[in-house]
């Protein structure tokens, strides 16, 4: 009787899932697509806002100088595949960044076998910035190796002289983790125990949150800011901007932002203070905030000098603007 009941139950059981037949596709059958994908990049805009895809496509092709040399296909929500006609162009675009559209950073990575819209991950964004205030005997590429432990993966190092209050600074391109807030500066210590505060000045800083310091969203889309301000109290921000009313509006879709943290107290390693300045006409407006020793201001300059990276772009659609 027990056996009959078990048999009846098994006969009446309905499988909730079916095992599908495994289809094996050889490399020979997908040879053409492998060759095509091998010269492609997968990209994603670091943003929380909708944007005009057609305008982004046209602008990127223009700034890259590749009107017919690249095919852009949408691979998923805010996910794109850029197929290049030559490996040279693909490498030039990948190394020539950072790139942005409408102040939204474009994250790029090489295509790899097995990559799908669901498993592709973007964990960092490349940014150029300068390190100011280091002792003269520490202005070297070797020091940058130590700095990268605090920031991210150093992709390129440049040393340049500039006649200002300080004679030397180090310029580096770093892949910054998008899960961490941008840093204003840091302390470096020599073998003699001397502690020196160095400041970071970012070039073409894309959209970021003035409250939490994360890239990819602004204060109005920040869950942390919402939680801190829902009780109606005053909220302190790490970064802030004060618009210059004398600034004429510019019809640009991408801007450069120079975030500078300055600390004149080099005798102490226990606190960070100073002035943070951000420049760029496309920043979202927020009320002024102070944070014990830190005053963040946005200095929107009246004049700009446009610098285009090796692409000969005329106009200011996606220009790499260096405010000086």
UniProtKB/TrEMBL annotation:
Low complexity: bias regions: 251-267
Domain annotation DUF4283: ranges: 34-115
Domain called Zinc knuckle CX2CX4HX4C: residue spans: 179-222
Region (Disordered): 243-277
Lineage: superkingdom: Eukaryota
PANTHER family, per the entry: GLYCINE-RICH CELL WALL STRUCTURAL PROTEIN 1.8-LIKE, OS09G0268800 PROTEIN
Protein's UniProt name: DUF4283 domain-containing protein
Organism of derivation: Quercus lobata (Valley oak)
Highest classification ranks of the organism: Eukaryota, Viridiplantae, Streptophyta, Embryophyta, Tracheophyta
